[in-house]
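Give me the fold.
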Amino acid sequence: MSQKITCFLFCLVLTAISLNAQITATVERSIWGAQTGILGIWGHNESRLSNSIALRSEIGFNGGFVGGTFVEDNFQWILAPTLNVEPRWYYNLEKRESKGKVTSKNTANFFSIKAAYNPDWFNISSSKNNSVVENFTATANWGIKRTLWEHFTYEVGLGLGYGVEFWKQYGYAENDNFIAGDLQLRVGYTF
């Protein structure tokens, strides 16, 4: 009888360990997707670095508007290329999973440090005369990412950091440093 109880307890402990291992939430190995927001369109990949950290790499177009009395036609729009790298720490994956909430496609809250490079290679705009000043920004961000219907995502985020505009290439004596803000309001599709 004691052997049966010992065997039963051993199986119970193995089952509990197995279930606990399954509950441990991790970021996805690799996610590809496309997103759009108020001002732009981007393609991205998130690759797992650890159980809670993913490296997001992104290429796309940031958008903007220009208006006023010194602008032809009083209103213009522009899309300029951007390259971004952003390690993200998804800090509440396990808490979401323990409550039975969705964690697929890295659905969780995150902290990140985003490095963005905006080159002056080319642009798409409503005027031939528009250009952008090449710049680099680094921001510390907080955000949320949620998945709807398995493939659709939305993100909301806010960040603050440092930036530099490279004016020397245009013949100016110095580059400009500035405080950079990052507001993310995006919807997208993951593959």
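The longest helix spans residues 2-23.
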